[in-house]
Structure formats: structure tokens, C-alpha cells
Write a structure and sequence with these properties.
By secondary structure, the chain is mainly beta. It is built from three helices and twelve strands; from the N terminus they run E-E-H-E-E-E-E-H-E-H-E-E-E-E-E. InterPro entries: Papain-like_cys_pep_sf, Peptidase_C1A, Peptidase_C1A_C. Pfam families: Peptidase_C1 (PF00112).
Length: about 160
């Protein structure tokens, strides 16, 4: 199992969440709720394992697991759903194999490796995400890739962010 502390490379990462919906009834364990709600709180992601992120909340040590919550990885569908309402969303993906392997179509390879690249999810259908890459228009489908939905292909559901103004 891979474990890590986010602070070893970039420091803790601030994350916006739907706390009213997610955290009010949390008492422990790995949180795996995919219900989406309005973003209303910021927390600090401080570490991870293959299965979950370790997140510190500001509600004090009497809340959750001594002030922390473990949030399942790969279920960040709320960010994707919210992106449809607010615009494009930045996502981290495992893209090493895309360089030589993607020529077009819906990408459905589940053997993608580790997260190593940031891209912009600009839309989606029931079958796939539409993702803009930074490698120029000569790559993929005029600079875009379609990534299959439903199986967290290339870790696309693990880490998505968008601004709230």
C-alpha cells in the first residue's frame, strides 16, 4: 500500500467541500458519500493512502477522528458535477501512457500508472469526460481526449478543483 504525506512535496492542500451535507453526521471510518451539495467549507488535505485522503477539519478534535476525516479516493464526482454548473475544472490524472497510446476515441485503459499531469475537464456526456490537454492541437483529438466515465480512468475522479468566486 502506498502512503504519503502531502506536506513532503507541496505542503497541505486546501480543499473546498460540501461540509453541511458531508460532515454533519460523520463519526469515523472511510467516508464514501457521493451525494453532492453546495460548497460551504474549506479543509486541509494532509496525507493519503491508495484508498483514501486524510483530511483535517477545523471543527476541533472532538469531531470525527480527532478532528480528521478519511475521504475515499476516486469518488470526486461532486467536483465534476459542480463543474457543469460553474465551468471547466482542473483535474489531476495519470497521463504517462497517453503520449504514445492515444490517437482518438474514448480512452478506457485502466492501467494508467501514477498521477503525473494536470488537465482541464471542459465537459462530459453519459459515457465520457471531455478533457483539454496542454500538449498542443497536434496531440489527440485537436488537443483533447475523451476519457470513459464510471471507472475512475487514469484517476480522473481523484482530485478536481475549480474556483468559487
Amino acid at each position: 500500500m502506498r502512503n504519503g504525506f502531502l506536506s513532503t512535496k507541496v505542503g497541505p492542500i486546501s480543499v473546498l467541500v460540501a461540509a453541511k451535507l458531508w460532515f454533519d453526521n460523520y463519526v469515523g471510518g472511510v467516508y464514501n458519500n457521493t451525494n453532492c451539495g453546495p460548497i460551504d467549507h474549506a479543509v486541509l488535505a494532509v496525507g493519503y493512502t491508495d484508498e483514501y485522503f486524510i483530511v483535517k477539519n477545523s471543527w476541533g478534535p472532538e469531531w470525527g477522528e480527532n478532528g480528521f476525516i478519511r475521504i475515499a479516493r476516486g469518488n470526486n464526482i461532486c467536483s465534476i458535477n459542480n463543474a457543469a454548473k460553474v465551468g471547466p475544472i482542473s483535474v489531476l490524472v495519470a497521463a504517462k501512457l497517453w503520449t504514445d497510446n492515444y490517437m482518438g476515441g474514448v480512452y478506457n485503459n485502466t492501467n494508467c500508472g501514477r498521477i503525473d499531469h494536470a488537465v482541464l475537464a471542459v465537459g462530459y456526456t453519459d459515457e465520457y469526460f471531455i478533457v483539454k490537454n496542454s500538449w498542443g492541437t497536434q496531440w489527440g483529438e485537436n488537443g483533447y481526449i475523451r476519457i470513459a466515465r464510471g471507472n475512475n480512468i487514469c484517476s480522473i475522479n481523484n482530485a478536481g478543483v475549480y474556483p468559487v468566486l
